[in-house]
Amino acid sequence: MQPPAGSQVSRVPAQRTPSEQLPPAPPAPAPQPRRRRLRTVLTVVGGVLALLCLGAVATGYVLYNRAAAPDRSAPDVVVDNYLRAFLVDRNDARADQYTCEGGTQLEPLRALRADLLTREDRFRVTISVSWGSLGFQKQGDVADVQVTLVISALVDGIRQSERQSWQFNTRLGEGWRVCGGQPAA
After folding, report:
1. Cα angle at 127 between 125 and 129, to 5 degrees?
2. How far is it, in rounded angstroms, from Cα 51 to Cα 137?
3. How many alpha carbons fall within 13 Å on the CB side of residue 21?
4. Out of 14, 41, 94, 135, which residue is the most buried by the measure of CB atoms under 10 Å away?
């Protein structure tokens, strides 16, 4: 069939280059090997876990130090902690953390504890020591703390107790410290 007269259509059949003569197609970017991607993911995850572990260790260290550090924030607090360590727990090393360095005048309290231990052995009873609120009078870096010790034991099914008023001298240095203690007059 002939094209209509005056048309612009060429009578030459369309020429196409055979496919074997075409230049090769540009190569597609090679996909990243799966091993590299996995290695990168594992490296990132390992780094994040390492940072989390270091953060947890640092937090644990700080919290442990706060929990283990003796509380010497106030005169009554230091006397309470000292009495608990010395008379209740009977832990001299812990009690020493609350006392003044060099020369304390706590012999009357040491004598009281020795007497309580002797009585426990002699009468085969357990003697407990407790106390109520502590009052203190502070003057600068020195404070006197008053407390009533309640010494009690269960003897033959009968609760027996004795109350003793004590006064403790404290001093502020690196926190408050117990420097002396004696029965109140």
Report:
1. 170
2. 49
3. 3
4. 94
Q: How confident is the model at residue 39 (pLDDT cuts 50, 70, 90)?
A: confident
How does pLDDT run across 58-102, given as a tens digit for each residue? 888 888 877 777 889 999 999 999 999 999 999 999 999 999 987
**C-alpha separations of 154 from 61, 68, 127, 179 in Å:** 43, 33, 8, 32
Secondary structure (H, E, C), 113-169: HHHHHHHHHHHCCCEEEEECCCEEEEECCEEEEEEEEEEEEEECCEEEEEEEEEEEE
**The model's pTM:** 0.67
Decide: 108 and 182 in contact? Cβ < 8 Å.
Answer: yes
Within 13 A of 49's CA, how many CA atoms are on the CB side?
6
At 148-161, the pLDDT tens digits run: 999 999 988 899 99
The pLDDT assigned to 150 comes to: 97
Burial class from Cβ neighbours inside 10 Å (0-12, 13-18, 19+) for residue 144 reads: middle
